[in-house]
Amino acid sequence: MRVRILAATLVAGLLMISAAQAKEYDGIWFLGLNLDKPIFKKVEARRAFGLAINRQIIVRKIMSEEATPNGVIPPGMAGYDASFEGFSYDVAEAKRLMNQAGVGMDDPRLKNLVLLHTDGVKTVAIAEQISRDLQSIGAKVILKQVSYSDQSRWLAELKSEKYDLFLMGYKAGEVGALFIGDQKSGLFHAVGCGKIPAPENQQFFSSYQEAIRAHYAPDPACKPQPGKEPDTNDLLEPLFHWGGSANFTGYKNSRVDIYLDQLEELDRALVELRNARFKAINQLIMLDAPVIPLFYIQKEL
User: Fold this and answer.
1) Cβ 51 vs Cβ 295: under 8 Å
2) Which residues in 198-234 are b (16+ Cβ under 10 Å) and which e?
3) Alpha-carbon distance 133 to 125, whole Å?
4) What pTM value is reported for the model?
5) Rg (CA), the chain
6) Could you give the angle at which helices 43-52 and 121-134 cross, rounded to 10 degrees?
7) What is the sign, positive or negative, of the torsion defined by CA atoms of 264, 9, 175, 65?
8) Is 115 within 8 Å of 59 (Cβ atoms)?
9) pLDDT tens-place values along the chain, 301 residues long
10) CATH 3.10.105.10 domain locations along the chain
11) What SS3 string covers the chain?
């Protein structure tokens, strides 16, 4: 089992999205399902949850976006499949699938489901919308809020595996890449360099480019370097590989693991083969429904 270091690529809070720039995406925001919980043992029930959520409201009214995700790979990234049909909003079909899974509206497994989320204004609005929507299939959802500023607690709660559902965003990028700036000197370096600014002067960044945009300069002693261009594998492997560092759903599919392992070693120049494999992975994940994609996260330009 491989475990990759999880750092600033985990986007627990809601990212600000600029409408002034042409939109490119490198991340996904989703509702995660804890597959160890009894209600989510059957795939029909998981798919029903996806169909019962009106994602159009989340995307357009709450996020002021246009594209409702049809998969776990954003547009512009290798493997994006515009022809693939993801979850629609279909309460009648959701109820049919719940019945097929042997779960009635009064099933005790649907009661007091706890949804973990952070405290951003839009995040709370999304959580409340999901809670309302899931009432249509008999689910009673209790919201559990954690402060986004308390990252250690947020990660501890995610890793505890005690919650039924959770809201989370994830961006592709250098796994473990985290930079720290010194507000006093105006310099920044990669965490691990050994130079630690005084606590009151610290400012953290999730990328080299973010630090530059904040008008910090590379520390000449530590010589921080920009990371490589993020790839689809950097997005999917942490979330959906059985050994992935951000696989908080408990998802396991041996075919997905094999494909992701192969893609990590596959030359990026083999564009058609990589696209085909990523599309296959997207289809497998969406059929298994360990997560319900809510919207794409814009790439930082």
Assistant:
1) no
2) eeeeeeebbbbebbbeeebebbeebebeebeebbbbb
3) 12
4) 0.81
5) 20
6) 120
7) positive
8) no
9) 333 334 333 454 444 333 334 578 889 999 999 999 999 999 999 999 999 999 999 999 999 988 899 999 999 999 999 999 999 999 999 999 999 999 999 999 999 999 999 999 999 999 999 999 999 999 999 999 999 888 889 999 999 999 999 999 998 865 446 789 999 999 999 877 878 888 899 998 877 888 998 999 999 999 998 877 779 999 999 999 999 999 999 999 999 999 999 998 888 789 999 999 999 999 999 999 999 999 999 876 5
10) 10-175+227-298
11) CCCCCCCCCEECCCCCCCCCCCCCEEEEEEEEECCCCHHHCCHHHHHHHHHHCCHHHHHHHHCCCCCCCCCCCCCCCCCCCCCCCCCCCCHHHHHHHHHHCCCCCCCHHHCCEEEEEECCHHHHHHHHHHHHHHHHHCCCEEEEEECCCCHHHHHHHHHCCCCCEEEEEEECCCCCCCEEEECCCCEEEECCCCCCCCHHHEEEECCHHHHHHCCCEECCCCCCCCCCCCCHHHHHHHHHCCCCCCCCCCCCCHHHHHHHHHHHHCCCCCHHHHHHHHHHHHHHHHHHCCEEEEEEEECCC
Angle in degrees, CA 106, 111, 115, rounded to 5:
145
Residue with tokens 């976006």: 65
Q: Does domain 10-175+227-298 have CATH number 3.10.105.10?
A: yes
Contact 55, 107 (CB under 8 A): no
68 token code pair: 């409702």
Closest CA to 27 of 39, 43, 16: 16
Q: Which of 299, 291, 294, 289 shows the shortest CA–CA distance to 60?
A: 294
From CA 3, how far away is CA 193, in angstroms rounded?
22
| Greatest Cα-to-Cα distance within the chain, rounded to the nearest angstrom | 64
